[in-house]
Specification:
alpha/beta, three-stranded parallel beta sheet
């Protein structure tokens, strides 16, 4: 299993990096694939990138961000 993380590092009082670090520390054996937005409306590009290797039978996707990040990711 791989945990894919799509995160907007500016959202949520800029806590995404701290949350990712905590996940890595608490679950060091789970492979992480981290995708951070760097500019506006980049979510669809990152979702496409994730879906190229994402296996829905075993992998998980975590979205970190605000309403916009979640909405743009789910709309894809």
């Amino acid at each position: 299993m791989t945990l894919y993380i799509l995160a907007n590092p500016q959202a949520g009082s800029a806590t995404a990096r701290t949350i990712i670090k905590t996940i890595h520390e608490q679950y060091p054996d789970i492979p992480l694939e981290i995708h951070l937005t760097e500019k506006k409306d980049q979510e669809s590009i990152l979702v496409e990138r994730i879906l190229k290797t994402f296996d829905s039978s075993i992998d998980q996707l975590l979205i970190l961000g605000g309403d916009g990040t979640l909405s743009k990711t789910l709309d894809y």
